[in-house]
Each structure stands twice: as structure tokens, then as C-alpha cells.
């Protein structure tokens, strides 16, 4: 049964550590350019940052991490860069999936896989199957993903299975068909690399997510930088349409803030 809690309606119960962090990992090319290296060197270095980010999130008690690795628009890049990224994806899948499994991490990929080589799709499916029962942490890679594609494929799949809904359907009917139907909506969105846009990432799911933009380029986004993002998140008041006063009467809000501050202090 997919988990389809809508955080646009409910105040998250988990306190001040975000349950789900979604990241646009941007700035690899500029990181390399600054060092007079080819853009692809930045992508390679970016994979190391992914490892660091996963570990930091697991340590802090984050439950879901969703990383934008390749957008549906990234096919527009020069052919040799696209080829390099595909090869890097294969190498990472080959080397890392078993390690994820050993660490109790569930691995998922969202996006339109029909454009990928069969070999990549096979690696992805095998990895997902191998790690399917891991419950400690869920890592989702968005590959050939687009938020508009996701909404469209959800509508198509819903109507395929339930043609009677064509006349009338509700949010809850559609939500179970989104690619991220197994995860709560992201609490914290991070974009590295200085751009302040969503670039067709999780359009539906980011409706009430706290947004954090940093100029830090993805290969430089270390544990300290992640801590800063979480600390910024902890200063936010998530109202979901309510007034500030309504939130103050919830007795646990301040307590949760103190607990979270203590927990984060361990990682300073
Ligand atoms: C993000 O870094 C990685 C991918 C989109 C695959 P970029 O490659 O976009 O790096 P910049 O933005 O050009 O620096
Ligand atoms: C967004 O980065 C996609 C990924 C990080 C995978 P881009 O660098 O492709 O975004 P735009 O084109 O600058 O918006
Ligand atoms: Mg970019």
C-alpha cells in the first residue's frame, strides 16, 4: 500500500529533522570550469558528494533522500556529455548498489526509463529488487525525470486502470500514481549552484516544501553545508495555511525545536 500522506494538509509529526530531503545537485560543470578541468570531471567529483550526503542524512535520522541526477531536459546537452553521464550512471550502479544494500538502504529510481539503454534499466530494476525490503533509509534517484511528465504519467495510468474516473476524480485518486507514491512529500528542498528555480523537478510534491538555495556548487556541498541547510529549515515555521498563533498552542512545537537543536549539536 503506497504511503501518500499529503503534507499540504497535515503538520508533520516528526519534529525538526526533515523526514524527506529533495536536492537539485547543480553546479558540477562550473566547479570543474573553475579548476580548468572538463565539465565531466565535475560530474565525477559530484558522485563523491552524493556518498557524503547519503551518510550525513542517515546519521541525522532523515528517512528519505531524493536526488535529481538527470532531468528530461538534460538530453539537450552536448552528446559527449550525455554519453559520459550515462556511463557514469552505469559505473555507479555497478559499484554502489550492493553497498547501499549492505547499509540497509532502499534504492529507487524515478523518471521515464524508456529512453535509457536496456542495460541501465536492468541494473536499476535489479537494484530496486535487491533493496526493496530495506526500511532504514530510502534513496531515490530522479533520472530522465520531469515534474510535468510525472503528473501526466500519473493521469494516464490512473485512467488506464480506472476509466470510470475520467468523468470526475480527486487528488487522492491521482496521488497514488505519482512516481514518489512511497514517500511523504519533501520537507526540505535544497538547490546548490546558485540558481533559484525548480527546473521541472517535483512540481506536485514541492507544494508546501521549505525551499533552500545555496551558491555552493554541488561538489563542494559537504556535511557542514548540509547542516546549514537543516539549520535553516529548523528556523522555519511551517504553517500550511494556518496562523502562527494556531501553531503556538500545539504544546510540542517548542519542545521539538529543543530536541532537534540538541540532536544537531552532535554534528557540529
Ligand atoms: C548538475 O550540474 C548535474 C547535471 C545536470 C547532470 P551541471 O552540469 O548543471 O553544472 P553547471 O550548472 O553547468 O555548473
Ligand atoms: C537541473 O540542473 C537538473 C539536475 C541537476 C539534474 P540543470 O543545470 O539542468 O538546470 P537548468 O537547466 O540550469 O535549469
Ligand atoms: Mg546546471
Automatic annotation (TrEMBL):
Substrate binds at residues 27-31, 39, 43, 71-73, 75, 77, 191, 197-199. Pfam families: Prenyltransf. Keywords: Magnesium, Metal-binding, Transferase. Mg(2+) binds at residues 26, 210. CDD domains: Cis_IPPS (cd00475). GO terms for molecular function: ditrans,polycis-undecaprenyl-diphosphate synthase [(2E,6E)-farnesyl-diphosphate specific] activity; magnesium ion binding. This is Isoprenyl transferase.
